[in-house]
Amino acid sequence: MSQLFVVHPENPQPRLLKQAAQFLQEGGLVAVPTDSSYAVVARLDDKAAADRLRKLRGLDERHHLTVLCQDMAGISQFAHVDNAQFRLLKHATPGPWTFILEASREVPRRVSHPSRKTIGIRVPDHPVALALLKTVESPLLSTTLIPPGEDEPLNDPEEIRTRFQHQLAAVIDAGSCSLEPTTIIDLSGSEPVTVRRGRGDPSVLGLD
């Protein structure tokens, strides 16, 4: 059975986050609330954990995984960002957005798209997710917690724990969060392209 950490949604207990971080350090997958929905996270440099993350979601290597960063510095480390992209990202983050960008050399090959050499990247606007990133002291590999064959992300920590008790090392329970996924904006081409409309409104960024 996965370990359940019940934390305060705005001021999560550091002791519990340290315990969750230890599971990640040991190669486990952890479910964490974000400003869009619950996500599954793993260490960025752990190939076995990345493979298990894809298996849990039923994803192949062509599906973009997302690098979850604590701030803009993390984005600049793992993606090539020009001045116009930087201004847009600064306006949008933190928030319910995933941006597709050209991956830097810092991104492991298994994480970036195999043909396009791009990466999904985002800064969540949720106290628990941000506190976990601060505790881990590193960006994390993530994907929205949508069960294989389903269209909607899961929102109930107890249900997540029950359904994935043999695949998740831990679930961080901060109560329910949004059921809307992030809005995905592809910035890897000459013009921004809205790939998926979710919780973020593209018009806020001056996009259609």
Automatic annotation (TrEMBL):
Signal peptide: none
Coiled-coil ranges from the UniProt annotation: none
SUPFAM superfamilies: YrdC/RibB
Domain YrdC-like: 14-200
Pfam families, per the entry: Sua5_yciO_yrdC
GO MF term list: double-stranded RNA binding
UniProt protein name: Threonylcarbamoyl-AMP synthase
